[in-house]
Amino acid sequence: MSRKNKIALVIMISLGVFIFWREARETNFQQVQHGLAHLQWAWLGVAVLLMLFSFVAEALVLKKLIEKPGEPHQPAWNFLRVPPIQALFNAITPFSSGGQPAQLVALIQVGYEGGRASSVLLMKFIIYQLMVLINFVLTMLVGFKQVMTNFSGLAILIAGGFALHVITIGTLLMIMFYYRFTKGVTQGFFNLLSHVIHSDKVERWRNQAMQKIETFHEESLQLKREKKKVIQASLLTLVQLIAYYLIPYFVLLALNVPHVDLITVFCMHVMIVMITSIFPIPGGTGGAEYSFKTLFATFIPGQTALILGMLLWRLITFYLGMLLGIVAMGIRPRRIFKRPINKKI
């Protein structure tokens, strides 16, 4: 890990500690002790296992997409280490932008050629975005009316997160199915931009954009040819997301919260994920805590239990991934392919 990334890691942990201190400063410490003493550790264990399972499911998606018949099989660890590394770098970079390059380096380290690894990660990204969108649309049908009625401010943020995902998916689908039209629109956009910004910069941006469009279109053709792989990877991704979205439900059970409705809690967590996606701060820090506190205040009686629930939820869904990512980077993978690799994260 570079010095810059280490500094970012320290900053994010410090920021998280500050947020929880700020939220808990008026909380009665004896009540916190009482809450921990009566915690249902078995349910909390289920929540942790669901998070670990989501990492395993993501590793299986990667394995399904990248392995080819006739090649030597990679050790399980070579795939299992990739999702935590992604989680770590998502957590320390704005808009989770560092996760994709970190995965690429992790795959190159075990011997996969960079171009092939990039195309597989692109396929994985498309599938993930589609499954997130499907989950969210179903959630909107079930729980958005309640949020709109009780939390109109959050509803705007949720709609913003939804719009961001729709734009992302829409752009990808345009490149896949309307390649020439998308290229024409992109060229037109940069032609207009050249009248406002220095032409050298615009040309550099234009070349980068056109190269990305070209690469993505080529990989989308590969995606269309491997329908069986895509379907299997999509189902695994759906299972991965369901496991992740269920975590707050078991956190609430661990806190002995009465009358917890699984579907409602599931929907609320999907919406929290949508809200955090529009925050540029790494890991959605601040936005995640605020949205959890606001949405789950209706389920959790008392400020102490709410703060404790927020802490446990964030430790499991965010900081556990960071910790496992650090461990994964410390344990080197075993190379199957003989090509020497010197790439470092």
Automatic annotation (TrEMBL):
Any one Gene Ontology BP term: lipid metabolic process
Enzyme class: transferase
Gene Ontology CC: plasma membrane
Record's catalysed reaction(s): L-lysyl-tRNA(Lys) + a 1,2-diacyl-sn-glycero-3-phospho-(1'-sn-glycerol) = a 1,2-diacyl-sn-glycero-3-phospho-1'-(3'-O-L-lysyl)-sn-glycerol + tRNA(Lys)
Membrane topology annotation: Multi-pass membrane protein
Main location: membrane
Mitochondrion listed as a keyword: no
EC number in record: 2.3.2.3
InterPro entries according to UniProt: L-PG_synthase/AglD
Stated family: Belongs to the LPG synthase family.
Role according to the record: Catalyzes the transfer of a lysyl group from L-lysyl-tRNA(Lys) to membrane-bound phosphatidylglycerol (PG), which produces lysylphosphatidylglycerol (LPG), a major component of the bacterial membrane with a positive net charge. LPG synthesis contributes to bacterial virulence as it is involved in the resistance mechanism against cationic antimicrobial peptides (CAMP) produces by the host's immune system (defensins, cathelicidins) and by the competing microorganisms.
Name of this protein: Phosphatidylglycerol lysyltransferase
Organism taxonomic ancestry: Bacteria, Bacillati, Bacillota, Bacilli, Lactobacillales
